[in-house]
Amino acid sequence: MLSYIIQSMVFQLLFLVVYDFFLKKETFFNWNRFYLLLTPLVSLALPFVKLQSFRTTVPEDYVFILSEVTLVAGQGSQIQTQSSIWDSINIWHWILLIGSCLSLIWFVYKCYQILRFRQLGKRFDLIDHTRIEIPHQELVFTFFNTVYIGSDILKRKHDHILNHELVHIKERHSLDLLFFELLRIAFWFNPLVYIYQNRIAELHEFIADSKSVKKHKKEYCQLLLQDTFQTEQLSLVNQFFNHSLIKKRIVMLQKSTSKKVWQLKYLMLIPLITVMLFYTSCEAEQQSELDQNSVSLEDQVRELEASIAGEEVSPDLQKRLLNVAAEANNISLGDFPKKETNSDWAFSEVNVKPSFKSPCADGTSDLNCFKVKLDEHVRSTFQYPKEAIAKKVEGRVYILFRINTDGTISIIDSRAPDASLDAEGRRIISSMPQLNPGLDKDGNPVSVKFAYPIVFRLK
Hints:
- The structure is a single chain.
- The protein is of the alpha/beta class.
- It has three domains: 2-59 and 84-280, no CATH class; 294-335; 343-459, TolA/TonB C-terminal domain.
- Helix content is 49%, strand content 13%.
- The protein contains 16 helices and twelve strands.
- The protein has helices at residues 2-23, 29-45, 91-120, 151-154, 159-170, 173-186, 191-212, 217-226, 243-254, 269-281, 287-293, 297-309, 315-327, 366-381, 386-391, 419-430, and strands spanning 63-65, 69-72, 122-125, 130-134, 140-143, 146-150, 238-239, 344-345, 395-403, 409-415, 438-439, 445-457.
- A hairpin with a 2-residue loop joins strand 5 (140-143) and strand 6 (146-150).
- The longest helix has 30 residues, at 91-120.
């Protein structure tokens, strides 16, 4: 969840930077409106998009990926525990939920304010819109097909104001603001959503000014500066008198129409989105994963002890191995030579596939038989860790292992959401019996790598 939120916020920030530096000052108002409406949705969707062509995983013919097996607490030696949906909600989920509820309450309150103006005012149903005249008020705003205007303004020259507000109605600007209000409810903690809403409200005024004033721009600018009004600030409506926007609206009115060639600026989206897709699709190890899966030196030593405990290794050699592990903290990884992998064969090139000693009775193919036997061993061996049950931890564990030339198993690496699940996954694979190794075309044994996902579920 946290990773998704951070990624989407970073993407939104990049889109806003492009808008502010390259697009905001152009007069392609409809293009900019589409940009501001589309890019927040793209930012929310991109973290879920993972294109296969951008991935940097090891080729499948080198490390053969087996289909996953699911283990449920209660099917092994551990007793299944009962858990409810409320047990899975932590304090951060509660904070997000409470914040969204408060944002929803604030949204309802703003709707109530608009309804109150509607009840206080005098209604006029016209051909293309509804007008609400509010007595003894100096405010003007639009909400969907209704123009709310104070009676004090109607006593002065106001045709330019009504023309401006009618553009908001025709362009359906209220839908844009409502869209960002919903985003604010769901992502109340994200300041970029508020910036997006500010940008779209600003753009709405530019659009309304450009379409309501074809000529006499100077006179229109003078009318904008004629009076200062005290109005309530509602992010849900389009307000004519917004002090912070007056200067920007006048500047944009005086600006000449942008040349069409500058529409090429929108092509910057292509490399920007490509970089984002590359980031979300790349499966190279990231720092967060390294932090999560890193283990202390003591853990490494204990793991090394466990891995050599059942091997025929002399006590002297065991001591030397542990001494090397204890001193590894002071040696950089670059000081060690890279492990040779030339001895591992691609699964597709192995003439005779690895197999269990006991054949399958139904005569299934070598690979299917191997997978059936492997799943049977896993299900009959696993024990859901007590620590994981106590913490209500579940998830997918990836075990990368090698079937050696003598049929023994060597675990190369593993990845898990919790240390207890990682240890159980390693234990299950390490307890596999000796297998028939893979053979090349000359009948010589070869080693083959496998990646095996094991899914742990509480129920």
